[in-house]
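Exam revision sheet. Question 4 asks you to relate a sequence to its structure. Input first:
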Amino acid sequence: RGLALELWGRFDMPGAFDMLYAIATNPAEPHRLDALRGLGWMGGERCRAVFERLAGDEDEEVAELARWYLEGENDE
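Answer key, C-alpha cells:
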C-alpha cells in the first residue's frame, strides 16, 4: 500500500490530494509517511500547506519529513 500511495501522488491521479491529505494528517494511520511522500511528489501550494501543518507534528518522523520537503522547496 505504501508504494501505491507514493505513486498516486507522483502521477497526480484523480482524487490523490484528498486521499493523501486524509492519510497524512491522521495520527492513527500507519501509512502517514507514504502519503506524505506522495504529496512530496505532487508539490504545489496545497501540499506546502500540508507540510507546514505537519512540520510540528507529534510524530517526529512525520515532522522531520515535512520539514525536509519545506527546506527542499527553499533551495530552488
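Marking note for examiners. Helices lie at 2-10, 16-24, 32-42, 45-54, 60-74.
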